Amino acid sequence: MHSTKLNLDCPTGAQPATAAPLLSPSRRHWIQFAGAGALLHALPGCGGGDDPKPDAGRLSEAIQWGRDAIRQAVQKNQATAVSVALMTSEGVIWQEAFGVADPQGNVAATIDSRFNIGSVSKVLAALAAMVLCDRGKLALDAPIARYLPGFSMLSSEYGQITLRHLLSHSSGLPGTNWRNIFAFEPIAGYAQDTEDGLAYFHLKHLPGELAVYCNDGFTMVENLVAAVTGQPYAEFVRREILEPLGMSHSAYPVQAFPEGSFVHPVYEGRRMGQEFVSAYATGGLASTPGDMMRLAQMFLDLGMHQGKRLVSQAAIQEMGTDQTTGLRINPCPEWRWGLGWDSVRQPGLDNVGIKAWQKNGGTSFFSTEFFVLPDQRMALLLTGAGTTYGPLRIAEGVLLRALSTTRAIPAVPAALAGIPAAAAPSVDAAGLAGIYANYEGPYKVQAVNAGTIDVLHRKGGAWEPVAPGLTLRADGWWWNDAASGNSYRWLTLDGKHYMIQRVPAGWGHYRLTMSVGQRLAPLPPLSAAWQARLGTRWEPTNESPESVALALGGGIATLDELAELPGYVMWSDGQLLRPDGDDRARMTIQVPVNHGRDLVELEFSTVDGQPQMRSGSSLYRLLAED
Q1: pLDDT band at residue 52 under the 50/70/90 scheme
Q2: Most buried of 48, 280, 327, 418 (most Cβ within 10 A)?
Q3: How far are the Cα atoms of 64, 449, 451, 478, 607 from residue 472, in angstroms, in the given order?
Q4: Coiled-coil intervals in this record (predicted)?
Q5: How far is Cα 87 from Cα 93, in angstroms, rounded to an integer?
Q6: Predicted confidence (pLDDT) per residue in 299-330, tens digit
Q7: Are strands 308-309 and 304-305 parallel, antiparallel or unpaired?
């Protein structure tokens, strides 16, 4: 609800080394995702209670490596608590918790401590939808408007959106309803609020045209489940999935959890109250690694649990099928979305010939990785209170060592090294220059000379160099000599110009590509009405004071213009919007995978004599100048 994150995160089956957290760029500036701060010393790990199994001994090196990596992350205050479970064909062979569940009382985390697993919840949403498809209540390729007669949007093509589009991030919905999504108390009605807010949006792309991480799609699944069953989504999942699987430590935050049953988040060294994720289907489940291994076992058994069928084998197989083959715009084809899964061939394991279904998850304070390896009958869940402890690297490191020990792969792969030799430029760098927009802040590409490029990123109201001195290399990518190992190229697809970034990822033995921006052309000058709004600041008026956004002192939005690209309105020093008349600004980009997510559309009106700004269901009032 990532990916990174989510990435609610970065997409996110395979997550780049620097993953996008769940919060939108307009809110990311006010909350730092260190998750730890100055904390108490790390407590020793608390082991599970299962009897030792042969694989636990055989895979002891992989387990010890994972244990050491987690302890190091906790000791460095990258996470306050981490919990992990590893399962093989013998069952759960490693389950352990590290750190503190409640720093205030120095209470150790245990294997029964609940963590917010964020967008890993999407796997449960997809599973719930497939259960209802099996029962004839839903159909994957039927328009969702058939089941939700009150649903509407400003683009007539919204009627083409299907359940398959929702579950594979290809619906064209804007991205994320940020209103009250994270809070320090339960806030009901988020899913209906999201549906109501979509009536004020256009689609950002046609359904099925491309795939870009979309929390709104899974929130709409929540509404579909309620519409066809007559039950609240959380209740349906509890009755039909959690209870049958024996996931007794898993729950949605419809009310406060008992103290001592969950891990407290920490912000700037302060122990916070329970984090409530209002978006249940897209990222609201709190669980434990042990519970999630029960879910993983059901996937490995193709829908069966202890001799009883929970969902059809065909449904499980469809969830694990690549949904990207029909996309029209797909510049980064290694992102193979499933239904609910970020990837059905997770790139880090696919690199060594191993098939893995993977989903990551992130909230304001937690980050999680979930792997199911169907051919190896292996699964892992790693979750932590913290967003900088590198869960993907640790998860891949454990799995690669386990796979090497079982001889599924010849050896743990080495990290990437070296930079390709220079090549004669075949493209004039000046032809690639321009402003490349995305959801969190534009890039500026400028030619130093015919064969050299500088890339800068907009941050804090200024341009910061992120990749100076790029030159074309023998592999067809533009590199510099920096130690980061990032490289770039530029593609034109469907008349759109994309900047593609390639980064070392996960354990470090492979690279991932991602479209990080779409080049925009200048527009006619802004009208007088828009000129008058430049430099203004806007405060939310219908956000709960218990939302994370307001409780931690954020939520203010700004309107400006980017000098290098006239004619657009810049939202909170990040997104570039196209005016549509004097009172509306629309989305401008169609960037696949992650950097085209969480877009806004603005509408202005006068209410009781005062200016009002709307973005979906969020309302704002104009702040007076200081």
Answers
A1: low
A2: 280
A3: 42, 12, 7, 4, 55
A4: none
A5: 6
A6: 999 999 999 999 999 999 999 999 999 999 99
A7: antiparallel
In a domain, 442, yes or no: yes
Who's near 194: CB < 8 A, 6+ residues apart?
177, 216, 219, 220, 223, 279, 616, 617
Strand intervals (E) in 104-256: 107-108, 115-116, 182-183
Number of C-beta neighbours around residue 621 at 10 A: 15
Phi-psi region of 124 (alpha: psi -120 to 50; beta: other; left: phi over 0): alpha
Q: 186-208 in b/e burial notation, b at 16+ Cβ within 10 A?
A: ebeebbebbbbbbebbbbbbbbb
Number of folded domains that form the chain: 4
The structure tokens listed for 179 are: 């209103």
Q: Give the integer Cα–Cα distance in Å for 306 and 326.
A: 37
Q: What is the pTM of this model?
A: 0.93
Structure tokens at 443: 């890039």
Reduce the DSSP state of residue 517 to 3 states and report it: strand
Helices (H), 335-390: 347-350
Q: How far apart are CA 46 and CA 414, in angstroms?
A: 31
Tokens 């869960």 label which residue? 391
Residue 97 identity: A
Domain containing residue 293 = 25-118+250-301+337-405
Q: For 393-402, what is each residue's pLDDT tens digit?
A: 999 999 999 9
* The pair of three-digit structure tokens given for residue 552, joined into one six-digit string: 């931690």
The pLDDT assigned to 25 comes to: 31
Structural tokens at position 216: 């709104």
199 in the same domain as 99: no
HSE-CB at 616 with a 13 A cutoff on CA atoms is 25
Contact status, residue 68 vs residue 82, Cβ threshold 8 Å: no
Closest CA to 132 of 1, 223, 246: 223
Q: Are 364 and 548 in contact (CB under 8 A)?
A: yes
Q: Are residues 192 and 129 in the same domain?
A: yes
